[in-house]
Amino acid sequence: MAVRRKILVTGATDGIGLALVRRLASRHDVLATGRRPSGEPEQLLPGGVLYTVADQSEPEVAARSVARALLKNNWSRLDYAILNAGVAYAAGPGQETAAAIRQTLDVNLLTTIALAHTLFPYLEKAGGQLTLIGSVSRKCEPDFASYAASKTAMHEFARALREEWRGRVRVQMLHPGPTMTGMYEKAGFDPGWTRHWFIRTGDMAAMMEAAIRAGGSPKTLSFLQYFSGASVLGRTIR
Ligand SMILES: NC(=O)c1ccc[n+]([C@@H]2O[C@H](COP(=O)([O-])OP(=O)(O)OC[C@H]3O[C@@H](n4cnc5c(N)ncnc54)[C@H](OP(=O)(O)O)[C@@H]3O)[C@@H](O)[C@H]2O)c1
What we know:
This protein is α/β, with parallel strands linked by helices. Helix content is about 45%, strand content about 15%.
């Protein structure tokens, strides 16, 4: 009989996170988080999915909100935590505002660290897996320097955590490539004609689920993997 896993997905109100929750919801118990107040997200998310507000602009507050939601729903263990929420702001050299830099680091990096520490006992109890969502942009993304810095720092954090948690909780870093979500528009950036090459959101969510199921870290999920690894798209979390 198929086992229903307990899965946390952050940033589940749009884009890849929402597509991932829609894939997982019928087979697993899902707790979704986002910055949007309760009401609207529940209309977007499949029935049965739990939703809690966890605005990652305030890392400790977000981590406490998630801990409260786990308690409230009597979740004492987590099989998978997928830390997917992310934000980016496009800005030329020297034009990034302090507020945008701080928001990028708070949402992408500091909340990831705060959540990892909060979730450790839940994941350990299940022998579970923490998956962090980075980006291929970490290596070089003109006009997105702070975003790239946040994703590089996440990568190194995951590398250290893999050693710290070895034998207790698996830690995985995934780096998606360009995907057709609203992230660029929200960031104030027009990718122009290149958007035609972006991977569809649902396909990225499928690649992500397959990669999470397979484990291993770090992994890039981009064009090469998409065109060469179509056969793994059907692999699902069990
Ligand atoms: N799209 C790409 O090309 C691409 C490429 C590589 C990596 N990624 C990464 O993939 C992940 C998902 O991105 P996406 O493309 O799906 O972007 P998206 O469509 O903008 O979704 C991002 C999610 O994070 C949430 N979020 C943003 N700020 C937040 C905050 N302060 N507190 C809590 N949640 C917040 C968003 O909430 P709202 O719905 O309220 O906006 C949304 O649910 C991100 O980590 C991103 O860096 C994306």
